[in-house]
Write a structure and sequence with these properties.
Chain lengths: 448, 448
Amino acid sequence: MKVTKFGGSSLANGTQLKKVLAIIKSDPERRFIVVSAPGKSHPLDIKVTDLLIDYANAFLAKQETTAIEATIISRFQAMCDELDLTLSMTTIKTEIYSLKKTPLVSSDRVMDLFKSSGENCHARLIAEFLTKNGVPATYVHPKDAGILVEDIPGDTVIKREAYHTIKHLKHHKDVVVIPGFFGVTSNDSICTFSRGGSDVTGSIIAAGINANLYENFTDVDAIYSANPNIIDNCAPITELTFREMRELSYAGFSVLHDEALIPAFHQNIPVVIKNTNNPDAPGTRISASRPLDTQSVIGIAADSGFTSIFLRKYLMNREFGFGFRILEILKEFGLQYEHMPSGIDDITIILRQNQLTPTSEQQLRDKLLTDLKLDEIKIEHDISMVAIVGEGMKNSIGVAAKATTALANEGINLEVINQGASELSILFAIREPYEEQATRALYQVFFD
Amino acid sequence: MKVTKFGGSSLANGTQLKKVLAIIKSDPERRFIVVSAPGKSHPLDIKVTDLLIDYANAFLAKQETTAIEATIISRFQAMCDELDLTLSMTTIKTEIYSLKKTPLVSSDRVMDLFKSSGENCHARLIAEFLTKNGVPATYVHPKDAGILVEDIPGDTVIKREAYHTIKHLKHHKDVVVIPGFFGVTSNDSICTFSRGGSDVTGSIIAAGINANLYENFTDVDAIYSANPNIIDNCAPITELTFREMRELSYAGFSVLHDEALIPAFHQNIPVVIKNTNNPDAPGTRISASRPLDTQSVIGIAADSGFTSIFLRKYLMNREFGFGFRILEILKEFGLQYEHMPSGIDDITIILRQNQLTPTSEQQLRDKLLTDLKLDEIKIEHDISMVAIVGEGMKNSIGVAAKATTALANEGINLEVINQGASELSILFAIREPYEEQATRALYQVFFD
């Protein structure tokens, strides 16, 4: 059994839905379909979810909503017309119109309810479409599917016990069509996952029914070994481990919702990223392990917008609990750090720049300087982190040499070098302007 | 004005004392002499401090002490005979004998008092010796010198206010001879610094009188750019910064007592390491800065006996305060860590192996695993840390490349790589058996 999730662009219009039909028909194992709301059907189009957010905001502001309702309905109507569907449109209209009758309890509850109806309506439409075209399909609401979630509007998480109910979905004879993106709380409120959360629903269903594959259909052929916007005809990655996928979670690898991998990872269900517009492309398979006969480095990821905070104190490494006190202060400032490489008497804290304002940065600087009685503190902005990643690195000597030589040849200074005992990745902190150059240089030595 | 400290081997017998006399005579700036207790005058000899520890233990155990007293006295007597000194011997005998009349208040007080008399007696003897040989000298007890310390027997530290008194030493006409290793508390108890603490006394005096140089005479020509026991005719380091000295503080660079540099560092007084047996050798000068026209790497240090604790948890880097909780647990176990390099979802903790017993290690493993809900924990023993150090690294690109290539060519796997933003050192964790090979390989690329 496979759980097959289709993203918004794969479901944006009738033409796309026909591709989806063909994909589902081509493999009888595809019995659990998780759908997003309709995405952009052309570059200037607006995603239905965004329209619903406007609708919700207008409603909350007690403004006129007729126009926006019409726009939303027209998106579904256009597909029904193109695909000659008659039944679901009535239900969809009723749902969209009835939204504005929602009691104004709390604005984020209202927002979640509105947002969720994009997926919900589309699931109904798609179930009808499949049935009408020789694939008997049943729409199943997340409540009936058993997607029981915590009461955290806009950013909910699944409850452990949910899986006991979800596994019963197996017994459905028909193909099951489940709206992604949201679940239902123990007191029947709708709560959505964070944006892009249909990926999460798919993964939850896959874990719940213990599928042998979770297929995630999107609009790219694969995950690439580097940022394809930087590297021309960048090599696709055919196989990847969950750990590698995580290490590559920097910019350029945001194909999948981060949290979407958790249920699949814990249940050890392979995930495959495929392209609705090119379903014959092998895509990228993400699983617990992969053959390591291939090269040591599988991907190069880079991300900018980091700040490095350098602390020096004479005899620091003799002071018990020094690192602890640093992290106490970071915690006090609500700061999350990424890395903390150290010398004997110095520590560098790498964190996301957007966590600091000039004011809070000044306060942090003063706090660290005085509380820790530092000899020196230096804060540098506009740092990029570049990571080379691969399970194979552990078994091959000289990867660091190859990488640092490539960067040295480009005259790129390494502010920080960081490799943990996993030997799964080596991270380099460099100045932002060199990020693309570094990516190209590393790509060349490891992939060309 | 220079403060000149002589170590135990430089003062082990009459022959050595004659060298010391020549050194003091050769430079009228050498007006503040800090002395250790007599060290080994031949390989099988016993240091006077060790004899005094035996004496103290016998006294505390209420055992017979006549023999050990005689042995101690004979060491001083031999020098007095050789150097034809008459005055101080009486005082020395009285002091050694009177030790056993110490009230048995607390054993560590007794221990400190006994230990301190090695330096104390020797200072008296040396003052007489200098005076008798044309260098008018006065013995000054640490109490009179103003070395006011905290009441921490065996591991005391100087009190801030002490420096106000110490500076008055300047006004002495004669050369001042001060016993190293101990100070006096506000209620007149003797407290010693940790072993080797005469270096600390010298540094304190240098800071107190604001000397323009702190000379530390020992039995090596210089600090070497790598462990001379591993590298044949290893290049000596002529100039070194305080920061570099600290980064090199791993094995093979333990020429100077770690804490000895603090007062000099804070008062910015240059320190020079010189050889009593070869005073014309330039030695090694340690100061705040040095000309960087020389090579990027100034030294290679290595130390064994580390353990690496590798932790992995899926989505670790999204968990706020994760590193903090790790350090909380280390703190709870009273563990001091050296480094903590990290990937996206993993952290490696490098710490000294001797802090853990098989039992405490198992407890730590369980605690980390359960409290942090880790996916994986791996503890590896017998790790060596190898560091390449140099202020010049910051301004020269490709040092990491050179080092990692050298290690790769030797087929040495890098368990961990760690370079902070100081770019003052790069640390590599490798398996212990490769330590010497790694040192040689790095020495070859950076020094041959």
